[in-house]
Design brief:
- The protein is of the alpha+beta class and 334 residues long.
- It folds into two domains: 176 residues, Immunoglobulin-like (Sandwich); 61 residues, no CATH class.
- It is built from three helices and 19 strands.
- It has an eight-stranded mixed beta sheet, with no helix packed on it.
- It is elongated.
- The N and C termini lie far apart (137 Å).
Length: 334
């Protein structure tokens, strides 16, 4: 009895050891993937009141070349921002594709755990602004999730903003496409665990969004080229005119041929059918045509049908009324 219990205990222990030995390499591999992630570049863009009355934060990052793909990337954003609006990877042309991810709240942060199968990625989220009358204020924090070889900060002024203050200062500034000023700061290398804060403050007398000032797309007009291009265009125009003329001629021939064929079919039907001619009335009802009264020979010049008495023309081979084959001209009823 005791030996049986001891054997079962040994079996359970061996089973647990076997399962543990299988899980440990997977755990080590997963930890290695997380700990080995590093960024060759990270651009953090801050766009207040761009298309929403909040702060749009954009991460444009690129994994280091030595990071094995697919890689699991974990980045933290403020919990008050809620779910990210975009988690994507980018191809060589810059086109974005959705990346699979999940989120988990960790204290005051929302952890984004994404699977990146390409080195370039983009993450976007909106964070609330502090408002006090016309004054706006926001503090961005980079928690230092990964080492970054080159970090750049970009701030796009909102529409009609004044008294813009950036701490630390952004020394570079240039006009943006929406007519607002874009500021930039080269941060440089950042170590893992090294945090960075940026405080933004400005005054804004209205609630207009920056996107409302974007100019409509301009349709480009053809630009006059050299003489050779002009003559080439003229040749193309001449070819187009000739082509249109040929198409019109072909259409006219087809229509004319169709009308001729329809008339031929009607004549053949009238000649071959022994019954009185049929037509369609104004409402589509088929009605018989009343036979015309007998006329003199001089009206048609070919005598009369020996079957129904209808007048015949000299060239008639069949009676136009009853379809009977006409007799030779010298044998017709006169």
């Amino acid at each position: 009895m005791g030996n049986g219990i001891a054997m079962r205990r040994q079996t359970v222990i061996l089973t647990l050891l076997l399962i543990g030995s299988m899980l440990i390499p997977q755990a080590v591999l997963a930890w290695g993937q997380l700990s080995s992630v590093s960024l060759v570049s990270l651009v953090v863009e801050l766009w207040p009141e761009y298309d929403r009355s909040s702060m749009l934060v954009i991460y444009r990052g690129r994994l280091a070349d030595e990071v094995a793909l697919p890689a699991t990337v974990e980045l933290r954003i403020p919990v008050e921002a809620g779910e990210p609006t975009a988690v994507a990877v980018a191809d060589e042309r810059g086109d974005l594709f959705n990346a699979s991810y999940e989120t988990e709240q960790v204290g005051d942060w929302l952890l984004i755990r994404a699977t990146m199968d390409r080195p370039a990625f983009q993450i976007e989220y909106y964070a609330p602004l502090e408002r006090r009358g016309d004054e706006r204020r926001y503090t961005f924090t980079w928690p230092g999730d990964y080492p970054v070889q080159e970090m750049v900060l970009v701030f796009k002024e909102p529409l009609s903003a004044t008294n813009v203050t950036l701490t630390p200062a952004f020394p570079e500034a240039a006009p943006g496409p929406e007519g607002v000023t874009v500021h930039q700061r080269q941060v440089g290398a950042m170590n893992a665990g090294e945090s960075l804060q940026v405080t933004v403050a400005y005054r804004k007398p209205d609630d207009r969004l920056t996107v409302s000032a974007m100019p409509p797309p301009v349709q480009s007009e053809p630009v006059a080229g050299p003489a050779s291009s002009a003559s080439s265009s003229q040749r193309v125009s001449v070819r187009s005119i000739v082509g249109m003329a040929l198409i019109g001629l072909a259409g006219a021939l087809m229509i004319g041929g169709g009308i001729w064929w329809m008339r031929t079919q009607r004549t053949a039907t009238a000649v071959a059918s022994p019954s009185p001619k049929l037509q369609r009335g104004s409402r589509g009802r088929r009605r018989r045509v009343k036979a015309s009264p007998r006329t003199a020979i001089s009206d048609r010049g070919g005598g009369f049908c020996h079957q129904c008495g209808a007048p015949l023309a000299v060239e008639d081979r069949f009676c136009p009324r009853c379809g009977t084959r006409a007799k030779p001209l010298d044998q017709r009823v006169s």
